[in-house]
Amino acid sequence: MDRPKQYLPINYHRSSEKKESSSQEQAKMSTTRLTALNKWERLLAKEKLQFKLDVLHQRKQLLKEGIPKEEVDNMLPIVND
Predict the structure, then answer these.
(1) Cβ contacts of residue 72 below 8 Å, gap of 6+?
(2) Is the separation of the CB atoms in 48 and 38 below 8 Å?
């Protein structure tokens, strides 16, 4: 509106303040959710990498123990994703 603030109805000020605080809360919640999601994705990626390292270590141990490579490949296949 083009009218100065002193001429606007009292309820107008309150409703615009509520809208501002509500949008600020929503933005804060969105940021918090994105941060949590980002942390979760990093954790999953870290766990996935650790699992791959464990499988490679197990393969190496089995090959050291003299188990044929074909058998190790059948038990613990390497999958690229």
Answers:
(1) 59, 62, 63
(2) no
Cβ contacts of residue 12 below 8 Å, gap of 6+? 1
What pTM was computed for the model? 0.57
Tokens describing residue 42: 């990093």
pLDDT single digits (tens) 10-63? 555 555 666 667 777 877 778 888 899 999 999 999 999 999 999 999 999 999
Place of tokens 């141990």: 61
**Contact status, residue 1 vs residue 8, Cβ threshold 8 Å:** yes
pLDDT at 25: 80
How far is it, in rounded angstroms, from Cα 39 to Cα 32? 11
Checking if the pLDDT of 1 tops 50, the result is: no
Tell me the H-state helices in 1-81.
10-64, 69-75
